Amino acid sequence: MIILHASIAILGVLLLIIALKVEPVIALVLGSLYLGIAGGIGLAGTVETIAVGFGEIMAEVGLLIGFGVLLGALLYALGALQKFVALLLRLLGAKRLPYAMSAALTTLFPSIYVDVQLVLASPLARSAAPHIGRGGLPLLAGSLTAGILVGYVFVVPGLGTLSIAGLLDIPLGTMLIFGLVVGPVTAVVTTFLFSLVLKRGFWTPANDEHETQALQDAEQAADEKDAEHEAAMPPLAVSLLPVIVPLLLIASGAIASAAGVENSVIAFVSNPVFALFLGMVGAYVLARRTLGRERTDDAVTTGLSTTGQILLITGIGGSLGAVIGETTLDQVLGDLFSASTGTSVILTLLLAWLIAALLHFAIGSISVAAIAAAGILAPVLGSLDVAPVVVGLAIGAGALFALQVNSNFFWMFQSLLGISTQGALKALTFVTALASVVAMPIIIVLGFLVPA
């Protein structure tokens, strides 16, 4: 019976979001309320469980998300991404740019929110496309897709990654190490495979591209604004320090732990909360010195306005997981996901991928799908013979699958890159589906190699 109630709750959430356009936060709370009451927790117990689950996940990732978003907003103001892509173009040339761009966006810039990454990188991709030749625009559009969204679900401090790690109680150092294995490889291989597909006539410029005066005007305004502020921007190496230093600190803690080294100083400086706070403060000081107080305050205000929605959705994901934990659903799912043989490792990871993929395809939000899937699976992790970090990676891969027309990102992508809806289906929907599938063999191999 609990399976029926859980199905009703999840389908109800999907219908509220898709058909009635209800905010995901409201829909997830209503789904949690229904599941708790129908699952026998009781009226007061359900509300209390929702509050406790929200508080527990906020204790895990609340500060991390807040610091990560503010760091990304300040990096945006400092122009780090624009300068980095321009440097790649000069050093590597146009032919290698798609691969370098996808790897760099995945590895170095996941702290910048995906919409902002797209706004920053799309004019650079459009301007570089003619240098690549025929198929330059779709190839760079696909590399943006792979770079931005793969980093979002696999690499710390990507917000999707932080949410999955927090809900599944995965140490961020561990998530960082494995994310840096899966993320860049997935992004580069996806870009390469997409280039092969393009060579077979997958892209038709007459139908898949279009130019608008509004896009030209927006690019001209952006170029003028960049030129106006370029003199004030710090050097690239300095701009990247606020994101590189925290990643190195977090990684050092994971490496020290794996080596059996225990030290209070290492534990302190490698703590993800401290590391991201240090990066955020560094970016803030750098912005104040180079951009002035007014522009820095504007960047912080933008970051704070984004943080609230992300924190609410993440917290409600924790509430859903707590409600599941108080019902018997975790036992049922534990039986479904139980892994006693090598073959079951594959089945477990594919089921985790499938849950997240279905949620994303229906809801249209990578973050909501990842959070909901992690909330559903978190209570049964202890019964699995697969390492939690590998399950988290499988959830991230599933949540990436086939971003399409029910996502705001889809329409931003189409508009900013000057392509048609058909073109966006190819360079965004197809590429996210491809990346989601490319990642799974790597994740399955890790499922056999990493101890549970």
UniProtKB/TrEMBL annotation:
Segments passing through the bilayer: 31-54, 61-79, 175-198, 236-259, 265-287, 299-324, 336-354, 361-380, 386-406, 427-450
UniProt keyword list: Membrane, Transmembrane, Transmembrane helix
Tree of life domain: Bacteria
GO molecular function: gluconate transmembrane transporter activity
GO annotations of cellular component type: plasma membrane
PANTHER family: GNT FAMILY GLUCONATE TRANSPORTER, PERMEASE
Protein name stated in the entry: H+/gluconate symporter-like permease
Organism, as annotated: Blastococcus xanthinilyticus
